[in-house]
Specification:
InterPro entries: TraB/PrgY/GumN_fam, YbaP-like. With 382 residues, the protein is an alpha/beta fold. The chain has 16 helices and eight strands.
């Protein structure tokens, strides 16, 4: 049976809503956005679970323009641009050579152009955390990406900024209990494994007891993700909005808030337990290594390589292949089909749409790129 408390019916909106997550076998994106919203530090991200207010009280921050790709005007930036930023180790030494200043290059990122007659869809694979170096001053994205943004009347994200603001109430309502429900919802062995993982953070352990397994899994992932030294304010979506809002302003979502919530609340108890078990199958060091590898692959920009990495990871940590496949179908592949349906409804002849979704949604035989090819689009890397 599905977890008690289904998400509310989809709100009426012309795709003006957004989704929080781009999860392969693991829902990294939702976790990181929740974390960014709560404004948590690397030293204690799991304290988000202490209460719904702490988990989601600042989700509004994600809907605000994020810190621009490192800009001199930012008061929070170090006086010396080469002073190490917490969690990020920049290049040592002077930024110049005997030949003159060294020009930083933005991350390549997975970027594709899909065309069918006069209809054009630009697709950028995003990452919800990053390094400041991924978005250099003056040119945060490669020129083809910036040109595509400038040519597109609409920027389509997974969730719209409006829905992200509203999401705090729904996540608290459907992911947080009024009592310590988690120990009762998990087998003793799985709960003990989680308690051992969080033994050095009693506040986090106390708070996570009040979450349902799917949200507990996302919070566990968050700690490891930030421990990798990446920063949520340098996630791709936030940086895109900084660029896009300067000259445009129409940002829509490919998924409603209710649809996004149902991806998790409709998981069966067994599927939720599998989701958490996969996260706890990794050691903290393995989680950090995986996040860094995902970041490396994203910088290279090959969607199929990212998909292959994700599939291999699922096979490595799945405790039940059948449940792992069910999770992928609910959280990834069903949403891929929905994303394609919505982006085709938005796209119009000679009016390109710029789509930015999690990189893990793009590649592979069931990814968005393959689905567009099945619809007759010519899809090429750019």
């Amino acid at each position: 049976m599905p977890e008690a408390g289904a998400a509310p019916d989809a709100r009426r909106s012309p795709y003006g809503r957004i989704t929080v997550c781009a999860r392969p076998a693991r829902a990294l994106a939702l976790t990181l956005l929740l974390l960014a919203a709560a404004g948590l530090s690397r030293d204690g991200p799991m304290e988000a679970a202490h209460a719904a207010a702490n988990l989601l009280g600042a989700v509004r921050a994600v809907a605000q323009p994020a810190p621009a790709s490192p800009a001199p005007a930012r008061t929070a930036a170090p006086a010396d641009p080469y002073t190490p930023i917490p969690g990020f180790h920049g290049p040592p030494g002077s930024p110049t050579t005997v030949s003159g200043p060294v020009r930083a290059e933005p991350a390549h990122m997975p970027f594709y152009v899909a065309t069918k007659g006069p209809v054009t869809i630009y697709l950028l694979g995003t990452l919800h955390v990053g390094d400041p170096a991924d978005y250099p001053v003056g040119q945060p994205f490669r020129r083809p990406i910036l040109a595509a943004l400038a040519a597109s009347p609409t920027l389509a994200l997974e969730l719209s900024p409006d829905d992200l603001i509203e999401s705090q109430d729904d996540v608290a309502k459907y992911g947080v209990c009024s009592y310590a429900c988690l120990p009762r919802l998990l087998p003793a062995s799985l709960w003990n494994k989680l308690a051992t993982r969080l033994r050095d953070n009693p506040a986090a352990l106390d708070g996570i007891k009040k979450t349902r397994p799917w949200l507990a899994a996302l919070l566990v992932e968050t700690y490891g993700s930030l421990s990798a030294g990446l920063q949520t304010e340098y996630g791709t979506e936030a940086q895109l909005q900084n660029v896009y809002l300067r000259s445009h302003g129409k940002i829509v979502g490919l998924e409603t808030l209710a649809e996004q919530m149902r991806s998790f609340t409709n998981l069966t108890h067994a599927e939720q337990r599998e989701m958490l078990a996969q996260d706890l199958a990794e050691t903290p060091d393995e989680t950090v290594a995986d996040v860094k590898e995902l970041h490396r692959l994203w910088r290279i920009g090959e969607a199929d390589a990212i998909a292959a990495w994700s599939t291999a990871k699922t096979e490595r940590f799945a405790s039940s292949r059948a449940l792992a496949r069910a999770l992928d179908n609910r959280i990834v592949y069903d949403r891929n089909r929905r994303f394609v349906t919505r982006m085709l409804a938005i796209a119009a002849p000679n009016k390109p749409v710029f789509v930015a979704i999690g990189s893990l949604h793009l590649g592979g035989p069931k990814g968005v790129l393959a689905l567009l090819r099945q619809r007759g689009f010519v899809v090429e890397a750019n």
